[in-house]
Specification:
The structure holds two protein chains of two kinds. By secondary structure, chain A is of the alpha+beta class. Chain A contains four helices and eleven strands, in the order αββαββββαβββββα. In chain A, about 20% of the residues lie in helices and about 30% in strands. The chains are: A alpha+beta, B alpha+beta.
């Protein structure tokens, strides 16, 4: 199924909750508003015509100039065959959810795809997107957020943001060398 | 006084096949729960993986993996170097399958910039040969270390004996034995050395009968089967739900291989089968199924390499490295592209903004996604089975932490 057809199904069903789409690119996708993402996700997985049962990746992107963060969900419909010849080209689809940089909240889809659990933890850890109602979340200063996964639990800041400043030390361990403090910034 | 020799006759042989399912174990001794730290320096965790186990006697009630000990900011580095310079960093993600990682990133960038159509046939076939050789080398390590996890030391030596030949082949082509950077954007860095095709064919003739040896040595070994069959069962639906891919997904009986369903690198010109777990020794999706899928995939890789060597004839003289590869500029666009790695689907998300340096690079490591099922599978199992389950997932921590 072409991405345009899937997007049309979504537009018929959800109307203006689908805020945009782009198919003239190497990565065709639709934009979904953050607060409706949970129901769109459930539809994408459970609709018998779509059955996007495999969440491949969640990539978080920082668009500093637009002052927003983007979560890119790459989905795929895995319909395996019984025999060799039954395997057919799969449907892939991409959904992007944009959130403002100062208040990035997206509903968690870990209850729909269990695979989302670790991907969302990574996206929070490195980019600071807060996934609400995440099954493995902890209480922070600014409310509940998913537990960090790659960085230590007490790490400060979100390393993949474009305006991230690397800390000078961590628990008394110097984290930046003298060269890095004095080198020219490109 | 005369005593008669007493013949001791056991009325019944003790039943050695006691089923050790959680439900049937009688808790006649009072036990209490204990937290056990398995790792990060535990030999059976394949690197620096730490699992916190909540145990009750020998039973594991909960297993929570903690990762990040090998985090090297590979994605952040990706935003500061050009794609051509990023290739060596991909080597260091999955260091047992460097060729495949190079290929994944190179294909993603080529697809984004439209260079894909201009790669010569010879470069494509060389890529396939090396990707499949690396798949064999990677599965050999998986096979050897899985034996070690279970307590069989010998298979490890057999596996590394054959892997040595493959590393020699790699060394002859690119000079490196572990981190190759051979497959790069625009093709491969250099053409094949003299007599490579002959030496490679010799290796394949030597290697093919060895697979039977592995089966006799380990696959059908009674102790090994007892340790792996019916342990850590993952059903096909669970596997898809958790986003598992590669041999772990196929071990659960799901016939799904990116080389077949969406062929990259002209894999559609090759004939090979996709082995899936069939539950020969126990249930479909147990540790033994995941293990045997890897062994069978090695045979299929041999088949692919033979065909690729055949197709290589007549392509002599073609340029194997496109000149644009080093000076490429990324358009203001993004892409997500996946290939079939030895461990599963390796995906790269690359976003460009018109400059030579990408705005964002993200790697979706198959080990990262496969490891997240640990918590689900390692529930109500024996402590010794945790090592068997982690080993059967075949994770490489360099890729989990990136």
């Amino acid at each position: 199924m072409a991405p345009e057809e899937i997007a049309n199904i979504l537009k018929d069903k959800f109307g203006n909750k689908i805020t945009g789409s782009n198919f003239e690119t190497a990565h065709p996708h639709v934009l979904v508003e953050a607060k409706s993402w949970l129901e769109v996700a459930r539809f994408l997985k459970e609709d018998p015509g779509l059955t996007f049962n495999l969440l491949r990746s969640i990539s978080a992107v920082d668009m500093l100039e637009d002052d927003e963060l983007i979560a890119v969900y790459d989905l795929c419909a895995c319909r395996p065959g019984d025999r060799e010849t039954d395997m057919c080209a799969f449907d892939e689809f991409c959904v992007k959810v944009k959130v403002p940089r100062n208040n990035p909240h997206i509903p968690s889809v870990a209850n729909i795809w269990s695979a989302a659990d670790w991907h969302e933890r990574e996206a929070y850890d490195l980019m600071g997107i807060v996934f609400d109602e995440h099954p493995d979340s902890v209480m922070g200063v600014e409310g509940r957020h998913p537990r960090r996964i790659l960085c230590p639990d007490d790490w400060d800041g979100y390393p993949l943001r474009k305006d991230y400043r690397f800390p000078m030390e961590y628990h008394g361990i110097p984290a930046v060398t003298e060269y890095e403090q004095t080198r020219p910034v490109h | 006084m005369k005593t008669d020799a007493v013949d001791i006759v056991l009325e019944s042989q003790p039943d050695i096949n006691v089923e050790l399912n959680g439900s049937q174990i009688q808790h006649d001794l009072p036990t209490e729960e204990m937290l056990v730290n398995m790792g990060p320096q535990h030999p059976a965790t394949h690197g620096v993986l730490r699992i916190v186990l909540r145990t009750d006697g020998e039973m594991v009630l909960e297993a929570v993996p903690h990762i990040g000990y090998l985090h090297r900011c590979a994605e952040k580095i990706g935003e500061t170097v050009a794609p051509y310079q990023y290739i060596p960093y991909t080597d260091r993600m999955d260091y047992l399958a460097g060729m495949n990682n190079n290929l994944g990133f190179a294909l993603a960038v080529e697809k984004l910039t439209g260079l894909e159509q201009e790669i010569s046939k010879r470069a494509t076939y060389i890529r396939i040969i090396f990707a499949e050789l690396n798949r064999i080398a990677s599965h050999l390590v998986a096979f050897g270390t899985y034996g070690l996890d279970i307590g069989a030391i010998t298979p490890f030596l057999y596996a590394f004996r054959e892997r040595e030949y493959i590393l020699d082949l790699f060394e002859s082509a690119c000079g490196a034995r572990l981190t190759y950077s051979y497959i790069t954007i625009g093709g491969v860095t250099d053409d094949l050395p003299d007599k490579f095709v002959e030496i490679c064919s010799e290796f394949l003739d030597y290697f093919e009968p060895k697979v039977k040896e592995y089966n006799n040595l380990l696959s059908h070994n009674h102790i090994f089967v007892k340790r792996t069959a019916d342990i850590g069962v993952i059903t096909g639906e669970e596997a898809l739900d958790y986003g598992l891919t590669g041999p772990v997904l196929r071990g659960s009986g799901v016939r799904w291989d990116l080389r077949k369903v969406r062929p990259h690198c002209s894999y559609d010109e090759f004939e090979f089968d996709v082995p899936v777990g069939q539950g020969l020794k126990g249930t479909v999706g147990d540790c033994w199924d995941r293990y045997i899928v890897r062994i069978q995939e090695m045979e299929q890789s041999v088949k692919i390499i033979r065909q690729a060597l055949e197709k290589l004839r007549g392509t002599e003289g073609q340029d194997v490295l496109h000149k644009k590869g080093k000076t490429i500029k990324l358009p203001d666009d993004d892409i997500y592209f996946e290939i079939e790695n030895p461990r599963g689907q390796l995906g790269f998300y690359v976003q460009g903004n018109g400059a030579a340096i990408p705005a964002r690079v993200k790697a979706r490591g198959p080990s990262f996604c496969n490891l997240c099922v640990t918590d689900k599978v390692c529930r109500d199992v024996l402590l010794a089975d945790v090592a068997a389950i982690i080993g059967s997932l075949d994770v490489v921590m360099g890729e989990v932490d990136r």
